[in-house]
Amino acid sequence: MPTVAPLDLEGHVVGVAFLKDIPFFAEASGAIHHLDHGHKTIDAHDGLLSLDHDEASDSLLTGGEDGKVMRISADGAISLVAQAPRKWISQVAAGPQGAVAYAYGKTTHVRLADGKTKDFPEERTVEGIAFAPKGLRIAVARYNGVSMHWVAIAGQPADLEWKGAHTGVTFSPDGRFVVTSMQENALHGWKLDAKAGAEARHMRMTGYPAKVKSLSWSAKGKWLASSGAPAAIVWPFQGKDGPMGKAPLELGTRGNIMVTTVACHPAEDIVAIGYEDGMILAARFADSKEVLLRRPGNGAITAMAWSRNGRQLAFGSAAGDCGVVDLAG
Question: Is 192 helix (H, G, I), strand (E, B) or coil?
Fold first, then answer.
């Protein structure tokens, strides 16, 4: 069995990431912990609400209840990206060309590398932001669908409409699909037609017994893993129409114990599966083979991240039960 190096923190862990092979753990309190020749702590926010791993610069972007957007580098240095007094930064996203998106209330703000900021207002509250993999384009999840904005081009957004509350959004790695998590127990997707003016095609992914709060694309974008069931539900996206008319894989089924977090391996078609009882399994898409990475612990798994080489997995729980799994043993 792989070895686990534990780290006991006090509160709910919002997110984890490896920055230059150093594991970082972000607590809801606003404290950021990293294991770099010992346990070190950064007081980043007065209450942490959102974070994203900026892979281009290998840094962590965070948004807080204090109205600040911060950037934290691998050496623990912290810098202010943006500040919105008396606002809660509910969403942050790292984009290409040094762009950073953040949102509070009904407006998304995109700060470009040159320091200029562009604002994109919505009619309803912003619930999620994602950058397209190519080009400066953002998808903004809100009530009744997604707004698609070109950051560098003036004009009306392209709207992807579907009734209901959309609580998060992601692009497929090839940019052909946009998928949202919903307030109801479902995902919704759109296939983006390359033809100008053509309608995006809808994809409904339903049947979950709980809300989907974790999504992760496989390394080559052929699969989308999701939480929200007593197994990791993994939808096939290798065909031109994505999962339409196809059944998903169900990996790591454990009776009625719910999957709370999923994280796909950076190179292999493998997904790490975190459960409400603190257990973590790894499962392979090809044959559903499972490997136990961690036995049950304190609190539901709320965050996981692989190291760049895929040999280590950092995790955190709702009770502050954290650690790093070393697959080399």
Answer: coil
